[in-house]
Structures are given as structure tokens and as C-alpha cells.
Amino acid sequence: MESPHSLSPSSSSSYSSDGVTFDTEEPRTPLAVRRALQLINSGEPHLCLQAARDIRRLTKTSQRCRRQLSQAVGPLVSMLRVDSPESHESALLALLNLAVKDEKNKINIVEAGALEPIVSFLKSQNVNLQESATASLLTLSASSTNKPIISACGAIPLLVEVLRDGSPQAKADAVMALSNLSTHPTNLSTILETNPIPFIVDLLKTCKKSSKTAEKCCALIESLVDYDEGRTALTSEEGGVLAVVEVLESGTLQSREHAVGALLTMCQSDRCKYREPILREGVIPGLLELTVQGTPKSQSKARTLLQLLRESPYPRSEIQPDTLENIVCNIISQIDGDDQSGKAKKMLAEMVQVSMEQSLRHLQQRALVCTPSDLPIAGCASEVSSK
């Protein structure tokens, strides 16, 4: 994330600050680090501002500089408290770079009192400042030590507000920060209380399904559907289950694992309640593919979910032998046997025909319910064409 105030290493060969000449051709030398520390500790606002920009540049790609400049954390945090938006953003970006891949700096930044001003910046009308604050919390929340402290500072409701109203970049960082925070047990209930699922679903609908954003959305949904409130919120949200199914079909391996995990959790919690909403979104082809091409966890979860979706509340005698449910049943039993690779290829070939037939029926059904009374014609066309 670049800032218009940053100095790139290639911008000039030297520059002067109060008569002191700095060499920018070798930004990672100990001399550059020492000078940055001298400036940040000078107490002079304009020198501190220059130091913050230098620290950001020095630590952008150098882990060694992050360690050497750890002493700058305290003065940089002090800059977050002065009445200067320019200082706020420069200090935030410097702290952000200091924290990347450095657990000690993450903890030291929080211990130095950075959370109070950073959390307050989440409410800023300055888009750049809000984005920088959200990115900072994303990085700081990667530390298990910081997770409960960040929650205790009231960051979670504000991150959900950013997820609702922020810029595209801020929304993506907010959902990743919330996903990080959700791995601490006491934070998950706090997140759930903010009713974030409508905003997560909105982001999931619009982002690329193979993106890191989609992965974190699905990870968060998987955690939230452990609770009845989360399951109800997802099924109540228009296109909520469908968005998860779409990730299951075209997401990264990790995203698909989270997606199938979320759907399995729902079906295991109350199969009668959630079986139809899941089936209605055309999940079967994606699940069949996962049983062969997913991660080991995805394969296991996909098989289990297929079994749950296959089981009918009606007597077996009422199920026609050529239904998709019976095809799925046969596929599962064969995959569990020997020679999985050869059989999988044959089954995937059969699946293509089944998938095409199911997808056509699915599109026809959705076209019927997509009427002018509940959706604009343009929205309906867009929905169908996105399949």
C-alpha cells in the first residue's frame, strides 16, 4: 500500500534535511538506520515526519531493518496522538511495515499504546487514514497475543462498520482482520453479536472467488455457522448459501475447504432444515469434484456432506433408481474403494453430463422465481448470466 508522501529508493540519489545529507542509494545500511532513529527521537515534528517516511521505506522489504528499527516503535506511536493527519498516516504506515512478519514488533506496538488511536482512525472520514488503520489492525491481529487485546479495545464493531461502509480495500482488510480475530475463542461471540454475515456475503458476492478475500470470507462464515444465529443469518441473506457454493466450485483449495466445511456444519446441525437450501443452489457438481480434487479434509467433508444430502426423509422405495441422489450414492461407494484414480476419471466424465443437466434445471428454476415483482429485469439477467 503506497502513500503519496513516501519516498521511493529510486526517487533521488540524496536529499537534505536541516543540512544533513542522506544517501538513498543504500537504504538498508546501518548508517541509514541510525539516522532514521536519530530523526525519530529528535522531537522535531518535521524531522519525525521525515523519519517515519524513511522507516517505512527501509522496512518495506527488509526483515533485518525491522529488527534494527524496533526502537522507533515508541516515538511512532507518539506521532499517532499529535494533531496532524499527515503524521498519523506516515506513522501508521511505518508501524505497519515494522509489524509485518515480526512478532516482537507486533506485540511491542500494542504494548506501546497504539491500539487506542488506531481504533479511533477506523471512524475517520479520511479514506486513506481509515484504510491504513484497517491494514494495521489486520497485521497486528495476526499475533495470538494481540487478539484478545484488540477485541477489548472495541475494534470488532468498528471493523464490521468498515466491512459495511468502507472502501473496497478497507473491506477486504477488515474481513481478513475479523477472520484473524475469530480464531480466539472469546472473540467469535463478539463478532457474531455484530451481525456481520450480510456484509460478509455482500463482499463474497463481489470479490473474485479465487481471491484471498474470498478465502477469509469463507473461513469466517465457517466459524460463524457453528452458532444457530450464524446459520440463520446465512440462509436468511439473499444469495448467502449460493455465494458459498460458488466458492466451493471455483475457489482456491483452502477456500473450498472452508466452504464445504461451512455447508457440512449447517447440514450436520439440522439436516432437515438446511438440506433443501443447500441442494437448491446446485451444490452437487462441486461436491463431486471435491471428492476427487480437493484437499484431504475437503474430500472427507465432501463425501460426508454428499451422504447427508443424499439421504431422503422418504422411504427408499419411493426414490427412483436413476435420480441424481442415487448416482451420488454410487459414486461415493466407489470412491471409498480401491483404484480411486482410474474410477475417479470415469466418474468425472459421467459427472459432466449430470452437471449440465442439473445446471440447466437450476437456471430454469431461478429464472422462474426471478420476477419483476421482486427483482429488476436487469438484475435477473445478470444473475442468470453469471452462472
Summarize the structure.
The protein is mainly alpha-helical. The chain is 70% helix and 2% strand.
Describe the structure.
Residues 1-17 have a biased composition (Low complexity). Residues 52-312 form the U-box domain. This is U-box domain-containing protein. The chain has helices at 30-40, 45-58, 63-68, 73-79, 85-99, 103-111, 115-121, 127-140, 147-152, 155-165, 168-182, 185-193, 197-206, 212-224, 228-236, 240-250, 253-269, 271-279, 284-293, 296-310, 324-335, 340-369, 377-385; strands at 14-17, 20-23. The protein is mainly α and 387 residues long. The chain has a two-stranded antiparallel sheet. Helix 19 (284-293) runs antiparallel to helix 20. The longest helix has 30 residues, at 340-369. It is elongated. Residues 1-28, 313-322 and 371-387 have low confidence and may be disordered.
